[in-house]
Amino acid sequence: MNFQAVLAGLPDAVIAVDEALRVVFWNAAAEELTERSARRMEGRMLKEVFAPDASLVRRLSETLAMGLSRSETETSVERPDHRVIPVSIVTAPLFDRAGRVEAAVAVVRDLSRIRQLEAEVRRGETLAAAGRMAVGLAHEIRNPLGAIRGAVQLLGRELGAASPLQEYTTVLLTEVDRVNRIIEMLLDLARPVTIRPVPLNLHQLLERVALLTEQSARERRVTIVRRYDPSLPPILGDEDRLVQVFHNLVRNAIEAMGDGGQLTLATRVSMNPLFGKVDMGAGQRSMVEVQVLDEGSGIPAAARGRIFDPFFTTKERGLGLGLAICHQVMEQHHGAIQIDSIEGHGTTVTCFLPIAR
Ligand SMILES: Nc1ncnc2c1ncn2[C@@H]1O[C@H](COP(=O)(O)OP(=O)(O)OP(=O)(O)O)[C@@H](O)[C@H]1O
Ligand SMILES: [Mg+2]
Question: Rounded to 10 degrees, what is the CA torsion of 173, 178, 182, 185?
Answer without folding.
Answer: 100
